[in-house]
What does this fold into?
Amino acid sequence: MNDISEINAVSYSTGKPVRIRISGGFIRDIMETGHTEGDPDLLVAPGLFDNQVNGFRGADFSDTDLKIHEMRQAVDALNAEGVTSFFPTVLTNSHENLLRIFKNLSNSLSDERVKDSIPGFHLEGPYISPESGYYGCHPAGFIRKPSWDEFAMYQEAAEGKIREVTISPETDESFEFIKKCTSEGVVVAIGHTNASTDQINKAVDNGARLSTHLGNGCANMIHRHNNPLWPQLANDLLITTFIADGHHLTPEEIRVFYRVKGPGKLILTSDITHLSGLKPGNYMFFGSRIVMTDDGLIKNPVLDCLAGASLPLRTGIGNVMKFTGCPPGEAFNMASANVAEAFGITDRGTLEPGRRADLVLFERNGYEIVIKQVFVKGRRVL
It folds into this structure.
């Protein structure tokens, strides 16, 4: 599809008609026009940025045999959902498999369309809690203590593209690992953890800055006072990432997150898996039976835990507006500007001159976000 030079729509944040001019794949300027040209219901927002995508439409990013064409198909399908940037997320696995997975992911960036949408990778595990309930559906046999030497091998296989690692700071090795990651520009997130308040605060003191899908990766039954949720909510240096698909958290929990953290310290993530976009039914995942229901819930019925998500990020945006009453600008920023800022990625995430022309044109049907057009670096992909 051809590059474009001009877009007329209504700003997602101000509600005012704007004209966006594009040159060389970047926003050249934005002007308020004072009047609507074209469809008055058409809004424009930055392309969505999802920091936790485990797979999509059959492509599993933790598959040791993932092919470049499978990644390309997943990228195209995610772009059509309004996601113009994302981190392929790799789950707990053996050392040998993780090396193969990151090598495959790195190789996939040889495709320019893939590279344009993937600014980095996210390693979720294997350095998470070994306690049942906290590791969720990660394979328990591969969970281990953090090792910088081991992680450095994954980073080498990934050609330096691992931008985020989720760990549980439950062991003494965690804190030096966090400090080393931070010094190397890798953002550390706390997740799948039963760490104590002291351990969580020490992790933050050493550089941890995110909470991975807070409220999940947690046992079903926890102590009402002494649990890993309160200290993460209470620490002002931690940005909360959360899933708003209607299954992972209740509306009340999301309202609490919004009121405690404020819109600037929330990141909306999808946590979608390779089952997203497929038909409901029974599937196998790491040797266990997984059920995906008609309403998009994915669950391991034996472990009685959720096994990722299937609903796209745009669903979460609508739910955040519905559950909190926040304006569209805040909800969209949780899935764009806030993400880019958290990872120090300065070429995308906002509608500003000099930023990439990653754009989503959409209409609202109540709280439903209806994607109409999508642009990646000024190139129309939907």
Remarks:
- The longest strand covers residues 83-91.
